[in-house]
Design brief:
Blueprint (H helix, E strand, L loop, with lengths): L1 E7 L3 E6 L4 H7 L18 E9 L4 H6 L2 H5 L2 E3 L5 E8 L4 H20 L1
Parallel strand pairs: 1-5
Antiparallel strand pairs: 1-2, 3-4, 3-5
Bound molecules: FE2/S2 (inorganic) cluster.
Length: 115
């Protein structure tokens, strides 16, 4: 059975087989999710946030890698998260990219003030 996954913030809708992980479906649809340990649940780089939908319950490997608060807030490991009935997930912005983006926005605002 095919399931649909909405990947934010891009807003890209992708299709995958039920039971595959979010990471597997993303890769097959050429959506990048960092996966430094290649799906072995040892790096946490594939951390994503579930917005809504039907997914597998939090497993023991995720409980070792994520805090209780992160789990309460919907964070999961994409390599451990099986898609049961589709849904929406959000890929958090890389913290380094967020800093660079904020600095570029501040620079752009300063240039506009000078004009
Ligand atoms: S890819 Fe490393 S924890 Fe998921």
């Amino acid at each position: 059975m095919k399931v649909e996954l909405l990947i934010l913030p891009e807003g890209k809708k992708v299709i995958g087989n039920q039971g595959l992980t979010v990471l597997e479906i993303a890769k097959k649809n050429r959506v990048f999710i960092s996966s430094k340990c290649n799906g072995k649940a040892s790096c946490s780089s594939c951390k994503i946030k579930v917005i809504n939908g039907n997914f597998s319950p939090v497993n023991e490997l995720e409980r070792r890698r994520l805090s209780e608060n992160q789990i309460k807030d919907g964070y999961r490991l994409a390599c451990q998260l099986n898609v049961v009935g589709g849904g929406s997930i959000e890929i958090p912005e890389d913290p380094f990219k967020a800093v660079v983006r904020a600095k570029l926005a501040a620079q752009a605002a300063n240039k506009e003030d000078l004009l």
